[in-house]
Structures are given as C-alpha cells and as structure tokens.
C-alpha cells in the first residue's frame, strides 16, 4: 500500500490546466448570463402568459429536465451536424448547456414568482402601474431575490456538470485532465489536482454570485436581511 | 549437495534435450498429424471474424488457409482473444498464431516472429474533395482523434501547431463525430474508416497521410527453428507471387503497406 505521489509530473502540464480552467469558466459565464435570461423569461410566460405559451414552456421544461445532458449535447453537436448545420463544438456545447440550465432556472424562478403575495399585485394595480412595470418592479426582482441562494447553487452545479462535455470533444478542465492522465499515467495525482481546481472554481462562482446579488438587490445591500 | 547439483544438471539437460527434440518435431508433427492448429481471434473484422453464415473469414483466416494448404495439411482454428494469443501458443494449445499480431520488441522476448506478411496503418483520413498533401496542409484544420491513443500522440506531434485537434473519449464517439459530419478529418486505423465509409458512403474518406505502420508476423515458439524457416520461405514466396497482397486487399480494401514488402525481402 505504498504509492509514490509525483505531483511534479502533473503540474508540469500547468498550461493545459490553465487553458482548461479558462474554458470551463467561460462556458459557465455565458451559460449563466443566457440561462438566467431564458429562465426569467420562461418563468414569466409560464406563470402569466397565454395558455398555449404556458404549455409550450411546460413542454420545454419537462423535456429538458427529464433527459440527460449528455444526450442533449450529442443532439446539438452530432445530431444537427448530420443535418448539415455544423456548429463549432464549443458553441454547440454552450448552447446545449444554456438550454439545459434555462429549464432548471425557469422552475426555480417560477417558484419565486409564485411566492409573491397577491396583495403586492393588487397594490401595484392600485398605484396604477402598468403590467410591465408591475412585473419588473413588483414581481421579478423580489422573486429573484427570494430564490437567489437556490439559483447560485444551481449554477455551481452547472459548472460542475460542464465536465460531462469533455466526452463530446470540449477541451474544458476535465478533458484537459484526461489528456494529462493519458500522457503521464499519474491518474491519482491528476484527480487530486482536478478536485482542488474544481473546488476553487466553485468558490469563485459562489463569490461571483454573492457580489452580483449585492449589485442586483439594493434592499438586501442596505438591510442585510433575507426577504 | 553435490548430488543435488548433479540431479539439477541432469534434469536441466534432459529438459533442454526434450525441448530441443520437440522443437525439431513441431513441423514434422504437423505433417504427421495432417493438421496445423492456428490461434486466431475471431472478433476483429476485417482481420478475422465470422461472416453471416458464421464461417470464419477475414484476411488473417484466408492467409492461414493458404498456409495450411501449401503445407499440405488441414487447418484447425484455436479460437482465442487478443490477450490470450501468446499464452495459447506457449501452452502448446496452438502451433502458430496468425491473428493480426504486431511485431514488437516486447513480444520478441517471448516468441519468435516470421517475416511480416501483413500490416496495419494508422493515417490521417479526409474526404476525397479535401486536398491534403503534407502535414502542413493540416494547418488551421480540425482533426478528430480518440484521446490518449497512439494516434493522439502521433498527430499531436506531427500536426502543425495551429491545427485544432479535437479529442473524443473513445473510438465510437470519434466515429460518431465523423459520421455526423461534425468533423471531416480524422486520425484513426484503416479498418475503422472502412466501417465509417460503409455507414456514410457520401463522404468517401481516403487516407491522406500515414502516421504509423505496424507490421504483423506469424507467431511461433522460439525453438521451432525448422518451422520458422519454412514459414519465412512461405511468406517470401506468397508476397512475391501476389497471393498474400491479394488477400489483404480483398478484406482491408487497401494495398498491403509497402513496409511489409520491404521488410520481407
């Protein structure tokens, strides 16, 4: 049971690790931005849109949440390519991940919207706010604030789930680690380093969300209390 | 103590002589029995596999048949898998191996090889319409390869630095990427490209650049000197008269690697 650790052999490949980390971060960043936009939009449609649109969003959410991410990315990267549309692999992967996270975000934000008390909407109506104004100021912002911790966790999960995409040819952190492993055969060390890197990344993503939260929700910034 | 030494020496000598005796005998034994036992792995198309009627065929099987008939004996296939090819031979369950056995220095420590009679080439493949004459032509292009294989190592070394190498987790995914047209240039073994071309005839992948050639020989026990002499002669004759190259071409859909012809001279 003696194993000679040789981290030097792995850390020699640091440019690959940096490159992989960068790809993972970029992937997470774009998916977060577009995921939240899609999620917020779909949640509004699902709670207050016309009947057919609600069903359509419901279909999207159920379909995406009940099929594996890997199959969704195969579909976008290989499936669409066989029909003649060739997306660059990183773009295909970003789209697949965004569509995926969008569905989860929809459900989380919907829970937030449904938690807004009817009295708030009636008050907005009494003040003469338009429908758009009501949604922007009375519904969406408090809804997001309320589900913000759940959202942050979901996006950390998204960052971790992006490792799946290495199998469709994305050279993100996990893919890079596999390459180092097949070069050095020091798989134990590679996965120790990989674990530490993902942990650091998760801390970074969480810190990013905390800062974003302070910027987005002045009420919380000033009062420091949960909604 | 002295007695013991003597006993050991006597044993060693008798063992050596029996081994020697059996060595001389394998060729004679095959002739006397009228049958040669050949270890073949029947799960590697197009090298050796069972056709739709479950009859063994493939370039290795046909070459083995030719060898048996030239020797004037019947062929008996000892079915094996990749890992058990050499153990089968060493435990005397088979007389020779003809099962896409690449000649390597590692294996030469254990068994003897005949002159190469076959080979396998890994290459960079691309559709006919894509013009690739040298590795420099790969610059700026995307190449599919399976992560961690010798192909990966070779193409990473040989491709220009601005070529984008897209690595997939296994050969199946690499093939999916090519069949689905996600990428058209791929570094892979010839036998897999034939499968891709069958499934996706529109693309017509053809070999553009050679990455590596492995040569394959008949595997024998090291002491079968007479047998090796006969088989070496057989390989030379049948490479020269075109019978072995014809079998190769029939199954592998490509010419026998020139390196095989060169080394067998």
Automatic annotation (TrEMBL), chain A:
<keyword id="KW-0812">Transmembrane</keyword>
<keyword id="KW-0472">Membrane</keyword>
<dbReference type="InterPro" id="IPR010065">
    <property type="entry name" value="AA_ABC_transptr_permease_3TM"/>
</dbReference>
<feature type="transmembrane region" description="Helical">
    <location>
        <begin position="25"/>
        <end position="45"/>
    </location>
</feature>
<comment type="similarity">
    <text>Belongs to the binding-protein-dependent transport system permease family. HisMQ subfamily.</text>
</comment>
<dbReference type="InterPro" id="IPR035906">
    <property type="entry name" value="MetI-like_sf"/>
</dbReference>
<dbReference type="GO" id="GO:0043190">
    <property type="term" value="C:ATP-binding cassette (ABC) transporter complex"/>
</dbReference>
<dbReference type="InterPro" id="IPR043429">
    <property type="entry name" value="ArtM/GltK/GlnP/TcyL/YhdX-like"/>
</dbReference>
<keyword id="KW-1133">Transmembrane helix</keyword>
<protein>
    <submittedName>
        <fullName>Polar amino acid ABC transporter, inner membrane subunit</fullName>
    </submittedName>
</protein>
<dbReference type="InterPro" id="IPR000515">
    <property type="entry name" value="MetI-like"/>
</dbReference>
<keyword id="KW-1003">Cell membrane</keyword>
<dbReference type="GO" id="GO:0006865">
    <property type="term" value="P:amino acid transport"/>
</dbReference>
<feature type="transmembrane region" description="Helical">
    <location>
        <begin position="147"/>
        <end position="170"/>
    </location>
</feature>
<dbReference type="GO" id="GO:0022857">
    <property type="term" value="F:transmembrane transporter activity"/>
</dbReference>
<keyword id="KW-0813">Transport</keyword>
<dbReference type="Pfam" id="PF00528">
    <property type="entry name" value="BPD_transp_1"/>
</dbReference>
<keyword id="KW-0614">Plasmid</keyword>
<feature type="transmembrane region" description="Helical">
    <location>
        <begin position="190"/>
        <end position="217"/>
    </location>
</feature>
TrEMBL record, chain B:
<dbReference type="InterPro" id="IPR001638">
    <property type="entry name" value="Solute-binding_3/MltF_N"/>
</dbReference>
<keyword id="KW-0732">Signal</keyword>
<protein>
    <submittedName>
        <fullName>Extracellular solute-binding protein, family 3</fullName>
    </submittedName>
</protein>
<keyword id="KW-0614">Plasmid</keyword>
<dbReference type="GO" id="GO:0042597">
    <property type="term" value="C:periplasmic space"/>
</dbReference>
<dbReference type="Pfam" id="PF00497">
    <property type="entry name" value="SBP_bac_3"/>
</dbReference>
